[in-house]
Amino acid sequence: xxxxxxxxxxxxxxxxxxxxxxxxxxxxxxxxxxxxxxxxxxxxxxxxxxxxxxxxxxxxxxxxxxxxxxxxxxxxxxxxxxxxxxxxxxxxxxxxxxxxxxxxxxxxxxxxxxxxxxxxxxxxxxxxxxxxxxxxxxxxxxxxxxxxxxxxxxxxxxxxxxxxxxxxxxxxxxxxxxxxxxxxxxxxxxxxxxxxxxxxxxxxxxxxxxxxxxxxxxxxxxxxxxxxxxxxxxxxxxxxxxxxxxxxxxxxxxxxxxxxxxxxxxxxxxxxxxxxxxxxxxxxxxxxxxxxxxxxxxxxxxxxxxxxxxxxxxxxxxxxxxxxxxxxxxxxxxxxxxxxxxxxxxxxxxxxxxxxxxxxxxxxxxxxxx
Length: 370
Ligand code: M6R
Known about the structure:
The protein has 370 residues and is an alpha/beta fold. It is built from 14 helices and 12 strands. It starts with 7 loop residues before the first helix and ends in an 18-residue tail after the last helix.
């Protein structure tokens, strides 16, 4: 039921404070600083003892894993790789018994991810599912797993699954590092951040009207849009670009800020809208440099900077046309906050361009053929 919302996509974007609460319910315990994941309990020893973690998924699910890689590496101190299901299969990626493969999928039925799971089982890796749909193939075949509990997602564009997938993977990293003394301060910061996340998202949703104005204004007739960030926000760039292109049909590219000078700067002209994630974390100085580089070559009026609350004036002072101030949170959770305005921009662009928001052309909700 769409209720008061005109489309499922909008409903699902607005559900995120609640869907994230669903993902954490009974699992994240801020009072004691603990995380419980019933679906992993029986295999916890094997998980903690593994030599390597490999995340596998397609599209948005792949981006969610990418968004968490740095944190998983930091908390587990294990090598972590993130693979596209199709590419993982194409390469017949070497796997060992001591490897853990985590399959990330909203539907639990995506053909490439399912095939990658069967491949991992043949090679005796320990398989973990991060799946929304209970009883789906991936949920049934994996050795253990975590359900997203985000509620049913109907719009073809994944929105609430993305934010819940990030929260679920972060909970796994917290669980795997529970006994590491050296990680306790960091774990505490993240657990407190998780508890405050639904309220932070509620605050971002209040930007809805401003985001609609952007979609009917500077972005509507763009031929191409560039989305730039680095560190934890690199995944946000890729996911924002996917969201915008799949529902608005405007070519949008996510670019790592460190790569700008290695080619993409040549794309910048007076027409191109540029979106930059410049929220505060330890890459802030570097991303400010990227903002300067883009301002010098492009049209400042067409630049949109997503920044931390209180930093808007600074970027406006540099000439940036639009600033979107969002609540600050732990670095690894900032992507959950930052993607929400991008989901809304994608939605309003699709509506402004008269497109079928919930069912974009040529796409299906679950890709069950390879
Ligand atoms: O159901 P899955 O998470 O396995 O689906 C994977 C992709 O097809 C999916 O994330 C797709 O990229 C999104 N619906 C795009 O918004």
